[in-house]
Amino acid sequence: MLLTNEAQAKEVKAKLDSGEDFTKLAIEYSQGSSIKNVGGDIGILQSGSMIPAFEDKAYELQVG
């Protein structure tokens, strides 16, 4: 989900933490139309296909 600033990211995270649906929030808040149109689903990504800082964090996450 591409957001405009840190304040918006914190707002969305709070909504996620309270149980709101990721897909609905991605459609509502995401600034990237390619991501917004698919509800935040970036699909399957190959190692080395993202910028390193993003990729490092993405691969640290647990599935789900």
TrEMBL record:
Residues 1-64 form the PpiC domain. This is peptidylprolyl isomerase. Gene3D superfamilies: 3.10.50.40. Keywords: Isomerase, Plasmid, Rotamase, Signal. Transmembrane segments: none annotated. It catalyses: [protein]-peptidylproline (omega=180) = [protein]-peptidylproline (omega=0). One of its GO terms (molecular function) is peptidyl-prolyl cis-trans isomerase activity. Its EC number is 5.2.1.8.
